[in-house]
């Protein structure tokens, strides 16, 4: 059973998956910083500083009403936090766009590398064909 486990772990697919998860976690931090620190402030500037994340409806009917979503949640009041949902959707769209652009750039890089390799292979001197070798063998046998 231990040998089977070693074989399973040593497979390329498992190792590739582990590397992908680790890189994905690191990439998530980069994209979250990009969205939170660079893009969201620009969106806030364009929308006049509206902070969607604090928009909510207090379902408790408390009087006076809570002034912030954090205060309502800290008090344990039921809230309909539609602003947090709007923020999550905006963040998702921004992250999806950034990932799309990165994948597109990587694909272009791969395509350029493949074209370069194909051009180098075409420029390399071609070896003798099978027919050329057979003709040489025939000629050598005639002698």
Rg from Cα:
30 Å
Helix-strand pattern: HHEHEHH
Derived from helix and strand composition plus strand pairing, the structural class reads mainly alpha
Strand ordering within the main sheet: 1-2
Largest sheet: 2 strands, antiparallel
Mean of all residue-level pLDDT scores? 83
Spans where pLDDT lies below 50 across 5 or more residues: none
Helical stretch count?
5
Query: How big a fraction of the residues is strand?
Result: under 5%
The counted number of beta strands is 2
> What general form does the structure show?
elongated
Relative helix content: over 70%
Total domain modules: 2
C-alpha termini separation: 64 Å
Write up this protein:
By secondary structure, this protein is mainly alpha-helical. The protein has 2 domains: 1-50; 52-143. Helices cover 73% and strands 3% of the residues. It contains 5 helices and 2 strands, in the order ααβαβαα. The protein has helices at 2-10, 12-46, 69-74, 82-123, 130-142, and strands at 57-58, 79-80. It has a two-stranded antiparallel sheet.
């Amino acid at each position: 059973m231990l040998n089977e486990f070693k074989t399973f772990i040593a497979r390329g697919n498992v190792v590739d998956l582990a590397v992908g998860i680790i890189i994905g976690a690191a990439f998530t931090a980069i994209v979250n910083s990009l969205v939170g620190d660079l893009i969201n402030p620009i969106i806030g500037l364009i929308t006049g500083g509206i902070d969607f994340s604090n928009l909510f409806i207090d379902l408790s009917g408390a009087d006076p009403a809570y002034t912030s979503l954090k205060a309502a949640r800290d008090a344990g009041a039921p809230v309909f936090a539609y602003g947090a949902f709007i923020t999550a959707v905006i963040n998702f769209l921004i992250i999806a766009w950034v990932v799309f652009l990165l994948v597109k750039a990587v694909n272009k890089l791969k395509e350029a590398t493949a074209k370069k390799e194909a051009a180098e292979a075409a420029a390399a001197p071609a070896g003798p064909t099978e027919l050329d070798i057979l003709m040489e063998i025939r000629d050598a046998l005639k002698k």
